[in-house]
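Hey,
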Amino acid sequence: MLRKHAVCLISILNIFSTFAQQDSVKNISFLSTVPQYLTSGKNIKIWHEHLYKNKYKKITCHVAWTTAYKQSFKNAQLAETLFGTTMLSIAGSDIQGRTDTSLIADYFGLSPLYQSTVFIRPSIKTGVITGDFILSLGQMGNNIYVKTALPLCISKWSLDLEEIINPESQTSSFPAGYMSTSTTNIKPFATSFKQAVKGKINPGNLQPLIKGKMKRNHKIGVADIPLTIGWHAKQSNEWGLSFEAVGSIPTGNSPKGNYLFEPIIGNRKEPLIGLGLVGYIQLWQDFAQQMYVYLTGYLFHSCKSTQYRSFDLKKNGFLSRYLLVKEFDAQENATGTIIPLVNISTLACKVNQSILFDGTALFAYSYNNFYTDLGYNGFIKSKDNIKLIEAIPLKKYGIKGTQYVFNTTTQTIDSSTASSISITQGSIADQQSFADPSTTFITTEDLSINSAQMPLSIIHTFFASIGYRAQEETKSKKWLPFFGVGAEVSLEGLDLEHFSNITKHSISQWSLYLKGGFTY
């Protein structure tokens, strides 16, 4: 019987992994984790003995706290998702023999002869203190119960950029008219890539990065507050079944697009509604020893919330949001101002996820007052549904590329554009090869929605804990304490047939936690 169930579980996971493979993408401009509280694995670890199995005739309160620390690993995969690599080559447009994967330094306000290598080591570190509360009405209240929690989080997200500037790199000035309306050569707006992507550049015609900045950031707040109403349909020593209706109050934060690697608390301000069930079966009992298996399954739908996402351009490729654009006035003449595209391609949109699935299998063994748990949690999120509610103004912006801002010969502002150029293309010498026949403007239809869309994701979590709890025979006491320690590891979805990673956008994390509480 157990072998049959295991084969069934593996088959289901293979199906989920196949779905993830079909919908995976190499690079996206946005990442988010599983909401800090939203896994049935965490909840069943705390409440399986005190709520689901025990039968109470009167109203009973259950209070618990959990302190957890989480940290990401396999961070190279995060870098590959965000940048397509763990190492960036930065090279000015006048560098001879640069690789076709080098980002053009000019587009970040750096010298045309600038050269550096940037190593990317993203990491996420999160601390969570959660207070849980359950009110069980017992048999007097038709076995109805309510649950809620207050998860207080601090989450630090860092790209941890390490830049090594090439000894041959130069800080030579921009030619007159290339990056400003000045008729003389001007100094670069930044002296390093790290400085430029933090939005710290020298004042001039180039607007600094306002959106999509690359710097360490943290967020403190209350993650979504879950609300659950449940009903025990069956409770006995041999087996039990409970049904739950679940919702959430979105007290976390929504993406603003100010940072490329932006810390998220909760479920991105997307309220959740869902249904679930919890069941258990006694596998074995021998006097002071017993073993149970608990199974949970929840289906959720996330409601729409207003978020800001940063979009690349469809035909200009990945990271094209970091190209420079020229600003134009109402008469379609260039104003002389140049702006990072990401500042205008970060737009408001309505975002939600159609389906989220959360399932857990837990094996619980106890001997007198002591217990140990071993379990698995599978979490699946459908891809983001994104609908823009903001647009790029018509005939307002065009891609600069390596075109001049000011024509020093005619003493007029240059309105030429380079609509087909990518973040790795262009030089001052061959700018005409990328110039448009006439001024070409960027429109909202040019944006790639997929570039800011989290695809279907699957995360496998394995966890274990040990602890102590007061026995049911001591219920003459008013306070029945329990406490324990545990650990868990979350991994991205796997092709179980070939054991190869297929969902690099899923965030792998390990976690340690302490839990405690009492029943009254």
